[in-house]
Specification:
Layout (H helix, E strand, L loop, with lengths): L5 H13 L3 E7 L2 E2 L4 E3 L4 E3 L5 E4 L7 E4 L5 E3 L1 E2 L3 E2 L2 E3 L9 E2 L2 E5 L4 E7 L10 H20 L4 E5 L8 H4 L4 H10 L5 E4 L16 H5 L1 H6 L5 E5 L2 E5 L3 E3 L19 E3 L3 H11 L8 E4 L5 E3 L5 E3 L4 H8 L5 E5 L6 E3 L7 E5 L9 H6 L11 E8 L2 E8 L7 E5 H10 L1 H9 L13 E6 L7 E6 L2 E3 L1 E7 L1 H15 L10 E9 L7 E6 L5 E6 L14 E3 L12 H11 L8 H4 L9 H13 L1
Parallel strand pairs: 1-11, 1-12, 13-14, 14-15, 17-20, 20-23, 23-25
Antiparallel strand pairs: 1-2, 1-5, 3-4, 3-6, 6-10, 7-12, 8-9, 13-26, 16-17, 18-19, 21-22, 24-25, 26-27, 28-29, 29-33, 30-31, 30-34, 32-33, 34-35, 35-36
Helix pairs in contact: 13-15
């Protein structure tokens, strides 16, 4: 962000003192911090040269917050809760009140942000135990991995599960207490989700505002912004809560309506957002955090607006050189690069709870209905350079899952449970009809710009991106659910997804290797030998290959340079040609030797 001039700060300070009912200071080490935006969600003012702010607030939201400037961090309560906001003492606009904030200096031009989504804690299905052993343990590992680099996190909504606020006595207060109890290991910037609204508020003109009141009182503002280093982050509430009682439904205790909603950013928020972004230079990367995605993706891999005002939001963001939206809600992975908004990319992120924790109960597999493992995105930021990576919580660094469709087909043809499922839901994909020697791969966080190549032995096969189901989730959830309950439920059943790839192999016996290259040139390799079993333990039998391990000894060292040199001289052969193509340019040459040397030096 460009700093405000001294004259501008003086003028702003003079204007602030004219009339106000909320005021205070923003300081660091006893000194006022100038140019910090402070807001009540409607008005936005800026601290003067002494760190002083003042505003005439309508007090409608009941809070005041500051936008964290780059190069600082907020104080944390309980080790994770950023103290960037304060509840107002009174809603009476005639009452003057003071709220001071304290910052601390930190060099966060380089930082890491963990984007997770949809924890759905509700004191059911052993969710809290899974959460502690899963996400909390992973975040502790991320802290260790980050070392001296500042690390932060965002959870993209549905922290809780509204229907169980009363039924299981677990609400937003309990969530915050659990984070304290579990020693959540980094700053958490939360986003409100549809399941974080109060379901006891009946439908009416003020339902959306009132149903978000517990969030504003116990968690934080439902929309706000902050800067980390050179990046501007914005959190928005895109749930317009309706909770209509349709009269023909029975609701559980504490719920008075259908808990329905629209995807919409209210006019008040949009007006605040314009004021917030007016202070952000167009060259600054902007990351907007939502619960409901701004864009949906369809079977043709094209995009359509998901929110009532997706276009308005993206028109604002498209003015910036680089703008990103990160979202949850769908419990699956996809990336949208919508036509007409060339500077905007949306990243929809798989759920940390997988299939609402149920596949973990059924089969011990934490997996989402698109086949993605329960996981999160790790973003690494250096200056204005942003890179990201999908991190499974329970499956190491796995980026894909391979299928020998011959064995999948046999299961579909011979399993009585699959016959029943397909009978009860004819819309399901029937892999029993697939042809001979087809291979498929689910590349979990595939995005436009990735390269996916499928090899049978050393021969690259033509492959296509297909809109279909992931067979593993069928085993981990659908089959197990049917076996337990004796009937088929469409609740969180396997869904069609947009990151499956298919190829026609020539035999059913040669090994298959898949290479995926992401937007940043990172190469991921995975292989199977065939026939490759299709069962709930199948992931234990595929193999991750190491780029540059030309001699196949599971290490990258000078021996691989020598082995590749022998290949180029015509006197050697790699264990797999795709491994020797270290830079994924589909050629084996001196550039691959240089890549191996770089890998050795980096290790």
């Amino acid at each position: 962000m460009k700093p405000l001039t001294t004259l501008a700060l003086m003028l702003l300070g003079t204007a602030l003192c004219a009339a106000h009912n909320v005021s205070g200071t923003v300081t660091c080490e006893g000194q006022g911090v100038a140019g910090v935006a402070v807001s009540d969600g409607y008005e936005v003012v800026v601290t003067d040269a002494n760190g002083y702010y003042a505003m005439s607030s309508s007090k409608l939201n009941g809070y005041v917050f500051y936008t964290l400037p780059g190069g600082y961090e907020p104080l944390l309560a309980d080790g994770f809760n950023p103290q960037f906001w304060a509840p107002l003492d009174s809603r009476d606009v005639t009452v003057d009140e003071t709220h001071d904030f304290t910052l601390r200096h930190v060099d966060n031009d380089k930082h890491t942000v963990i984007f997770a989504a949809d924890t759905h804690l509700a004191r059911r299905n052993s969710d809290r135990a899974f959460f502690k052993k899963g996400l909390i343990a992973s975040l502790n590992n991320e802290v260790e991995r980050a070392g001296s680099t500042p690390i932060y996190s965002v959870i993209l909504g549905d922290l809780t599960w509204d229907v169980f606020w009363t039924q299981n006595d677990y609400n937003l207060v309990d969530f915050m207490e659990d984070m304290k109890h579990f020693k959540y290991p980094m700053a958490l910037w939360p986003v409100i989700g549809n399941h974080d609204h109060d379901p006891s508020i009946p439908a009416g003109a003020d339902t959306d505002f009132t149903a978000a009141d517990p969030w504003r009182r116990f968690v934080c503002p439902n929309y706000y912004s902050f800067n980390l280093g050179q990046v501007h982050y914005v959190v928005l509430d895109d749930i317009y809560y309706l909770n209509i009682d349709y009269g023909d439904e029975t609701y559980s205790e504490g719920v008075v309506g259908s808990r329905n909603y629209r995807g919409n950013i209210t006019n008040d928020q949009m007006q605040w957002l314009r004021k917030d972004l007016a202070m952000v230079d167009y060259s600054t990367p902007v990351v907007v955090c939502l619960h409901i995605p701004a864009w949906s993706i369809n079977s043709n891999f094209s995009y359509s607006p998901r929110l009532d005002n997706t276009g308005t939001l993206c028109s604002l963001l498209n003015k910036y050189t680089e703008a990103h939206i990160v979202s949850g809600h769908n419990h699956c992975n996809y990336t949208a690069r919508p036509t007409g908004y060339s500077h905007v990319t949306e990243h929809n992120i798989a759920a940390t709870c997988g299939s609402l924790w149920q596949s973990a109960i059924f089969t011990g597999r934490h997996i989402c209905h698109d086949g993605s493992p329960a996981g999160y995105m790790r973003w690494t930021i250096t200056g204005d350079n942003l890179q990201w990576y999908f991190k499974p919580i329970h499956e190491g660094d796995r980026q894909m899952r391979l299928y020998d469709m011959n064995t999948v087909r046999d299961y579909y043809l011979n399993s009585a449970t699959m016959h029943n499922i397909l009978h009860d839901d004819p819309s399901r994909v029937n892999f029993g009809t697939i042809g001979n020697n087809v291979v498929m791969v689910n590349v979990f966080s595939y995005a436009p710009g990735w390269q996916v190549a499928i090899y049978e032995g050393d021969n690259q096969l033509p492959c296509e991106r297909v809109y279909t189901e992931d067979p593993f989730h069928t085993l981990a959830y659908d089959v197990a659910c049917y076996s337990i309950y004796g009937n088929y439920s469409t609740y969180y059943t396997t869904s069609l997804n947009t990151h499956m790839f298919k190829a026609q192999a020539t035999t059913g016996t040669l090994p298959i290797v898949v290479r995926a290259v992401d937007t940043f040139g990172n190469i991921y390799l995975r292989s199977i030998t065939r026939p490759y079993s299709y069962n709930i333990g199948m992931e234990d039998y595929d193999k991750s290959l190491i780029v540059g391990d030309v001699n196949g000894d599971s290490e990258i060292n000078i021996a691989d340079v020598n082995a590749l040199t022998d290949i180029l001289m015509g006197s050697g052969r790699p264990s797999c040609l795709i491994i020797a193509d270290c830079n994924a340019d589909d050629e084996i040459n001196i550039a691959d030797i240089n890549t191996i040397i770089d890998l050795i030096l980096e290790s």
